[in-house]
Amino acid sequence: MTNDQWARLATLVPDALDLMPEERRPFLQRECRLSTGELDAELLRQAEALIASSIEATEAGAFRSPVGGLAGQLAADEGITRHAPPETVGPWRVTGVLGEGGQGVVYRAIRADGAFERSVALKLIRPGVGDKLVARLAEERRVLARLEHEGVARLYDGGITNDGRPYLAMELVDGHTITDFATSTQLSTRERVAMLVSVCQAVAYAHQRLIIHRDLKPSNVLVTQDGQPKLLDFGVAKLLDEAHDPTLTVPGWMTPAYAAPEQVRQGEITTATDVYALGVLAYELLAGRRPYTTTGLSPAETERIVCEVAPPLASATAAEAVPGRAATLRGDLDVILAKALAKDPDRRYASAEALGADLQRHLDELPVEARPATAAYRVSRFVRRHRAATTAAVIAVVAIVTGAGAALWQAAEATQQRIRAEQEALTAETTASFLANLFQGAEPATALGDTLTAFDLLERGVARADSELAETPLIHGRVLYAVGRAYYHLADYIGADSTLARAIAILDPLRDEATQAYAAALTMHGSTLSYRADWARATPILERAVDALAAAGDTTSLDYLKALMQTGTSLSRERRLEDATIYLEQAVRVARSIFAATGDDDTSIPATFNAYGYLLQQLDRLDEAEVMYREALAMVDASVGERHPDWVTGTSNLANFLNQSGRHAEAETAARRALALAPEVYGEQHPGTAFVQLNLGESLRGQARYAEAEALYRDALALGRPSLGENHPAITVALTGLGESLRQTARTEEALPVLRQAMAVTSTAAPGNAYGDRARIELARALVALGNPSEAQALLEVGIQRIEDYGRPTPITSEDLRTVLRELGLAE
Questions:
Q1: Which residues, in sequence order, are CB contacts of 483 under 8 Å at separation 6+?
Q2: Residue 344 pLDDT greater than 80, yes or no
Q3: What are the φ and ψ backbone dihedral angles of 236, each rounded to 5 degrees?
Q4: What dihedral do alpha carbons 632, 638, 639, 640 form, nearest 10°?
Q5: Which residues are catalytic?
Q6: SS3 532
Q7: Is the pLDDT of residue 658 over 90?
Q8: Which of 471, 463, 468 is nearest to 433 (CA)?
Q9: For 773-793, what is the HEC assignment?
């Protein structure tokens, strides 16, 4: 391997190790690329071997050396020129290798002159490595020499070897990453928070000496056997009080998943940068996942996620990742982490010390600085600290209330309906007042000169709702539902998912008295998941909404119609066509009944016709499907006109149907009409526009106008990926269409990695979705064209077996794949 490949490994491997296991391979497949864009198979093999050996060494209890940039031992590779370990380095005798990278080696060593006995991690630059890296190690030595704290791995010695290479002798930390330690020892939330306080104190110590770490992440925080966390690897640290060579701390020396917005944008780095990284580290340690993932994203997409997308509350993430811990994060810890992760550095904690102090206040059950000091909140903290002293008072209050209750029972029963109506009105008024007060923040007089975005307001709304409405759960749940719905309409489906999940959790105990609010939150949450193609999660949530409304006798309302329609849509997308038929036929009956009885042309009615049309299309009842699509579009046109999202959606749906029916010229006309209005009615960055671009691209591909189609597929990918995610069927369709367009315009080599990317997702998709097997067919054609018929044959044969094992009708059948095998000369 070349020095350049070694240098790339030295960055790739630790970044991959910081990811979840299932995220590593997609990350490496994206990053291990040649300048031509093709996969660098040798680099990928070396990276995976290094990761495997690192994990094996860690599981066996071996030391993992973040100092060296690579963990564990290198897999054997005969093609690598290796240098025998030196016997001694300065006054240190080398006893083994801890880790290697393309730029340096970390040895285990002991004192050779007998002055004292201590094993150290000895970091030594390789022979022949450039001056820049030598200068980096010298910078690291200067940084570490200023730090002497129990929470920081100490520097014992440093110098220059006889051949002019610098070395560092550092404290050998025999431990595990902070996340691995917490998992293996099953630490409670309180124990995890206490450990974070120690980490904040160590970072604050460095800050007091004018040093910023700039790469805080789990692999740079090891925990010793006695539970002491230690900060390592100050190799990218910045000294605040000294001029330094900017090439020593270039932007690439950071881990994007833990980088602050200002790092990603290459802005000014301050102590607030470390506060943000501490927030990400704390979020992962407490919630079980990072606040977002950057795996597989382009630099532009990574920048948008880190700089613009507000992460879900930690408790919402924990509800999925570690459900038993979610309740312990609600309230103080949610708000503390949100403050640490603020996009604007000025809105974060002023220092790591302040963050640690607020975490300690939470442990001490004192009011935390991140939350408004309302009277109710201060009282709740007092009660928590003095449970025993306040128990008697609570019992006395309960006794008085229950005693009065017996006397008042008859009067309450007589006016029960009136009271419920008044409570409902009060709840609605309070909810509206809260939201109105929240959006007053956009007024110049109250914003104090700040420029607030819609996402800022929603983030503020969640934090305020949690702090001010915790004692009124019905209002709290309704406000979170409203915020989640706003996230959905702003195409932030991750924010909508987490916020609506929290709203449902709050409203669930109240479902009998607040059925409508509870069902609305369920329907909105299911719709959000369905839009992102997460149908396995969406369907049971939507079924709960239908069941709740039916149990309450509410089977003729628009709320019931929406729940039926969304459930049927999710089922049809899962190819559970018989179940989908039950829900959608009932939805059509309810829709026609509402329209006939009231004349209400709410957009849920044409949306139901669209959903039923798609089901009929899947059932190959094409004439009936077209009638439903056109009836839906006519209803929208009559009620709200062309300049409305529902008209654009309906026209795009019609274009999709016409494409599937082989009527590509008609589809082009419909799609162009929709695309002319989509940016205006959806917004420039809304994924709805990507769907229209995709349908237009499909119509052009169907007419063999591949060059025109290619541009639309690329536009759809750029617009759809940030909101829909890499695994959405629309992204796979766009990748497949792009790959076919490239192949058809004599760029098969360029098409191959695009089609492989499409297959990386579709290989795990259910065979009932046509987009998966279409990608399979296109990849097989490209492989044959490039002289690899054996892989193409295996690919198609696997597809045939998958379809036959599926056991249900599929859009592309096993016989269709056998026909392709014969067309390609791979079978008789």
A1: 458, 461, 462, 465, 499
A2: yes
A3: -110, 15
A4: 90
A5: 215
A6: coil
A7: yes
A8: 468
A9: HHHHHHHHHHHHHCCCHHHHH
pLDDT value of residue 483: 84
Count CA atoms within 13 Å of residue 326 on its CB side.
17
pLDDT of residue 127: 60
C-alpha to C-alpha distance for 443 and 445, rounded to whole angstroms: 5
pLDDT digits (tens, 9 = 90+) for 19-75: 666 667 877 887 788 877 788 888 888 788 777 755 554 444 333 332 233 323 232
User: Helix, strand, or coil here: 167?
Assistant: strand
Is residue 199 scored above 70 in pLDDT? yes
Distances (CA, A) of 183 to 55, 227, 285: 16, 13, 9
Strand order in the sheet with 155-160: 88-89, 92-100, 104-111, 119-125, 166-171, 155-160
Per the CB < 8 A criterion, the answer to whether 430 and 445 are in contact is: no
| Cα(66)–Cα(73) distance, integer angstroms | 12
Residue 94 β-bridge partners = 109
Percentage of the chain modeled with pLDDT above 70: 74
Res. 608: pLDDT tops 80? yes
Specify whether the CB–CB gap between 230 and 171 falls below 8 A: yes
Cα 569 from Cα 209, distance rounded (Å): 59
Residues 6+ apart with CB under 8 A from 387: none
User: What token pair was written down for 285?
Assistant: 């340690």
Instruction: Determine what percent of the chain is predicted with pLDDT higher than 90.
Output: 27
Provide the pLDDT confidence category of residue 497 given band limits of 50, 70 and 90: very high
Return the structure tokens found at 601: 């042309």
Look at strands 119-125 and 104-111 and give their pairing: antiparallel
d(CA 571, CA 86): 65
Q: Could you tell me the two tokens for 94? A: 């080398």
CA distance 300 to 646: 30
Through-space distance between the first and last CA atoms of the chain, rounded to whole angstroms: 44
Laid out side by side, the sheet with 175-177 consists of 175-177, 221-224, 229-231
Amino acid identity of residue 540, one-letter, is P
The burial class, CB within 10 Å (0-12 / 13-18 / 19+), for 139 is buried
CB 350 within 8 A of CB 318: no
CA dihedral sign, ordered 173, 174, 179, 181: negative
Instruction: Tell me which H or E stretch contains 480.
Output: helix 473-489
414 or 345, which is more confident?
345
**What is the C-alpha separation between 453 and 436, in angstroms, rounded?**
16
Q: Which of 828, 731, 817 is nearest to 781 (CA)?
A: 817
Residue range 421-479, pLDDT digits in tens? 444 444 554 554 455 454 444 333 333 344 446 677 778 778 877 887 888 888 888 88
**CB neighbours (10 Å) of residue 726?**
19
Provide the 3-class DSSP secondary structure of residue 700: helix
Give the chain's count of helices (H) and strands (E): 35, 11
The answer to whether 696 touches 734, Cβ cutoff 8 Å, is no
Q: What is the mean pLDDT of the chain?
A: 77
Q: Mind giving me the DSSP string for 669-697?
A: HHHHHHHHHHHHHH-TT-HHHHHHHHHHH
Q: What is the pTM of this model?
A: 0.47
DSSP at 115: S
Q: CA–CA distance from 609 to each of 308, 535, 588, 625 (Å)?
A: 36, 20, 7, 9
Confidence of residue 100 (pLDDT cuts 50, 70, 90): low
Q: Average pLDDT, stretch 657-685?
A: 88
- Spatial separation of the C-alpha atoms in residues 239 and 517, rounded to whole Å: 54
Q: How far is Cα 431 from Cα 469, in angstroms, rounded to an integer?
A: 10
Element (H, E) at 231: strand 229-231
Burial class of residue 485 in the structure, from the number of CB atoms within 10 Å of its CB (0-12 exposed, 13-18 middle, 19+ buried): buried
